[in-house]
Amino acid sequence: MATAQKxxxxxxxxxxxxxxxxxxLLDEVEAGIVLTGTExxxxxxxxxxxxxxxxxxxxxxxxLFNMHIPDYAxxxxxxxxxxxxxxxxxxxxxxxxxxxxxxxxxxTIVPLRVYFNARGIAKVMIALARGKKLHDKRQTxxxxxxxxxxxxxxxxRG
Length: 158
Prior knowledge:
With 158 residues, the protein is α+β, with helices and mostly antiparallel strands. It has four helices and seven strands. The chain has a single domain (12-132), classed as Small protein B (Small Protein B, Chain: A, Beta Barrel). The protein has helices at 19-22, 37-44, 92-105, 134-157; strands at 12-15, 23-33, 54-58, 61-65, 86-89, 108-116, 122-131. It has a seven-stranded antiparallel beta sheet with strand order 1-6-7-2-5-4-3. Strand 6 and strand 7 form a beta hairpin.
């Protein structure tokens, strides 16, 4: 079983900050991603977006849908499709566990961040997540505001 991963060591290219607000994240998994040369060059420039992207099962594998990697200008006519589905590279056991949770328990797979690891390889951190209801979001916001207020009080007291 995969355990929660620590923060990535390399350069974070894109982050899905909205995911922590909209979903209750249960299990994080690191996955490789199949990219073309122009996509890697565009990512190295720090240009991509995970907003409104999601992962799902297609043909027995996990794919990342709707991730936007803009065209790499110097590539001219040899460029890639900006929003094409991209295959994620994971162990079969991890794929089966994620797909099983999505089908049986009604969960979803959400991409959290895209980054380059210490070896310079593009990776995606995905999470098995359950959608939050409106009252859960309010509860989370209350908790966050209280933590902020508590730290201010402690800081001011000295």
